[in-house]
Structures are given as C-alpha cells and as structure tokens.
Design brief:
- The structure is a single chain.
- The termini are far apart.
- The chain has helices at about 1-30, 35-115, 120-150, 165-180, 205-225, 280-290, 320; strands spanning about 160-165, 185-195, 200-205, 225-235, 240-245, 265-270, 275, 295-300, 305-310, 315.
- The protein has 2 domains: about 1-155, Signal transduction histidine kinase, dimerisation/phosphotransfer (DHp) domain (Helix Hairpins, Orthogonal Bundle); about 160-320, Histidine kinase-like ATPase, C-terminal domain (Heat Shock Protein 90), CATH 3.30.565.10.
- Strand 4 and strand 5 form a beta hairpin.
- The protein is about 60% helix and about 20% strand.
- Strands 2-4-5-9-8 form a 5-stranded mixed beta sheet, covered by helices on one side.
- It is of the alpha+beta class.
- It is built from 7 helices and 10 strands.
Length: about 325
C-alpha cells in the first residue's frame, strides 16, 4: 500500500514537472523576449511551480490517507462483525446444547424407568406422559431452530390468504384451554377478546404466521404466570389490527425490556430469579417485521406484562365479500 502511494506521487510529480518545463517557457516567450524580464519571471515561475506542486501533492497525499483510513475502518468493522458473529454463534450453540439436552435427558430417563418393569401401570402412564411432553418440547425446539435460521437467511416465505380472524382465535383459545387443564399447579383464567363481533369479517394475511406469533406469546405468558389471568385478543387500529397478550405474571424489569427479543435472553431479578425466553420472542419479532408490523412490550415486575403487535392488514367486511 505504501509503495503504491509513493509510486503514484512520484509519477504525478514527474508528469507535472515535464509538462511545466515543456510548455511554460514557450508560453512565456509569447509575451516577452527581453532578457531581464525573462530572468525575473523565471524566478517567480520557479516559486509558483514549487508552491503549486506542493499544494497539489498535499491534496493527493490527504486523499490517499483518507482512502487508506476508510479501507482500514471497513476492515475493522468487518473484523468486529465477524468476531460478534462468531461470539453469537458460539453462544447460540451453547444454548442449543442446553435446550436440546433437557428434553432428551427426560426422554432417556423415563424410558429407562419403563424398562425396569418394577412400576405400577399408573406410574408407567405418568412416565409415558413425560416422554411425550419432552418429545413435543424437542419437536417445537427443532421447528424454532429451522424458523430462526430461515429468518436470519431471509428464506422464510409468507403465504397470504383471506381468512376468518375469529376462527383462528377460537382455535388458539381451545388449544390453550386444553394446555391449562393439564397444568394442575397453575390457577390461570384464560380470556379471549375479539375485535369483530361478526365472524363473517375476513382479513388478508398469513394465518399460520400470525397464529405462530400469538402461540409463542401465550406460551411465555402461561410459563411465567402461576395465578391470575392471561388475556389475549385483537382490536381494529387505524389501517390494520393490533393483537395483544396480557398476563398477571412475574413481569420483566424495565431496563431489560429492550433485550428480551434476543435469542435465549435470560432476565435476572432478586425477587424472581432467572427467566429464560428461548427462541420464541426472537422468532415472533422476526415474523411480525416480515409481515410488515412492529412488536412492543410493556411490563412491571410482579404485576405482569403486555405484548402487542400491529399489522397493516386488509379487512374484508361481509358486504365486500358478496360483491
């Protein structure tokens, strides 16, 4: 780099000197041929050449230094980005190892107990239930890994259709009502609020991805709420729909709210301890943005949290459907 700059400056200096010597005297002789005047002008001409070339060379060196600094800054940023990428990849793999081991250990452990043949039928059914639950958790984790990878590489497709929003909400409500029936240690009331009183209203978007976001948010709400209420639903807002999930759970410290959408982020508080959020919130944020919306969160420790996301959806009224 330094040799190239030095060569470039030398060539420019030689070219300028050659052109100056070649043409300056010829131009000067067109104005005067008197010896004393030529001698005096030659002195000024020499000084002018020195000053002019010094200024031009200064500009050239400054330009080359600026280019060099810009290249070095790009390389520095690229190096930092690569290091951050490696750090995040290592952290991601470490977290994935932990998340995968947990359900696998459960599956292997209860499978070993079943092989021993020294337990009652009721106990065996309980072991099988734990194996199925851990298997489902592992399957969800695998789907999450695929989704987060596709979101990162921008390979996840959005399939938009006309669908009944109330029907989608009813299905989610039934699924989570069944989940809460199995959660014997939780005293949670699940409440659904619909923005359309008429089921004939339709919207145009991707029902699978919207349902996935709501499911992720509800999973977190139920996970971190031991008693009280979990309310979810939607309402019309401007030129679209605002979806929301509220809970009366442990809440999240305000200073940590801007980080909870990071993969496997863990919040820490004195009263509550650690809370791991896994991949669900990170995927939800990516899906909402892919659908053209924005997700936000409000929370207060020991009072609960409210997650909401707005989507600019086309709403199709019953009258428009008949046209």
């Amino acid at each position: 780099m330094k040799n190239r700059i030095a060569l470039k400056i030398s060539i420019i200096y030689l070219v300028l000197g050659f052109l100056w010597i070649l043409f300056s005297d010829k131009i000067l002789l067109n104005f005067t041929e008197e010896y004393h005047q030529l001698t005096e002008i030659q002195t000024y001409k020499g000084w002018f050449y020195v000053l002019a070339t010094a200024f031009l060379l200064f500009l050239l060196v400054q330009r080359e230094i600026s280019k060099k600094n810009a290249i070095e800054e790009k390389l520095r940023k690229a190096r930092l980005k690569a290091e951050e990428s490696d750090r995040m990849k290592s952290a991601f793999l470490a977290n994935m190892s932990h998340e995968i081991r947990t359900p696998l250990n459960g599956i292997m452990g209860f499978s070993s107990l079943l092989q021993e043949g020294m337990y009652s039928e009721e106990q065996k059914k309980e072991f099988i239930r734990h194996i199925i639950n851990n298997g489902n958790n592992l399957l969800v984790l695998i789907h999450d890994i695929i989704d987060i990878s596709q979101l990162q590489e921008k390979l996840l497709d959005i399939v938009e259709i006309d669908f009944c929003l109330n029907e989608m909400m009813d299905n989610i409500y039934m699924n989570f009502s069944e989940v809460l029936l199995k959660e014997q240690d939780k005293k949670i009331e699940l409440i659904m609020e619909k923005g359309f009183s008429d089921d004939a209203y339709m919207v145009h978007s991707d029902p699978i991805r919207i349902g996935q976001v709501l499911t992720n948010l509800l999973n977190n709400a139920i996970k971190f709420t031991s008693k009280g209420q979990v309310v979810f639903g939607y309402k019309q807002a401007g030129n679209g729909i605002e979806f929301f999930v509220e809970d009366t759970g442990s809440g999240i410290p305000k200073e940590q709210l801007d980080k909870i959408f990071e993969r496997f982020y863990t919040t820490k508080t004195l009263n509550i301890g650690e809370r791991r959020f896994g991949l669900g919130l990170s995927i939800s944020k990516g899906l909402v943005e892919l659908l053209g919306g924005k997700i936000r969160v409000e929370s207060e420790v020991e009072k609960g949290s409210r997650f909401s996301f707005f989507l600019p959806l086309q709403i199709i009224s019953p009258e428009e459907k008949t046209v």
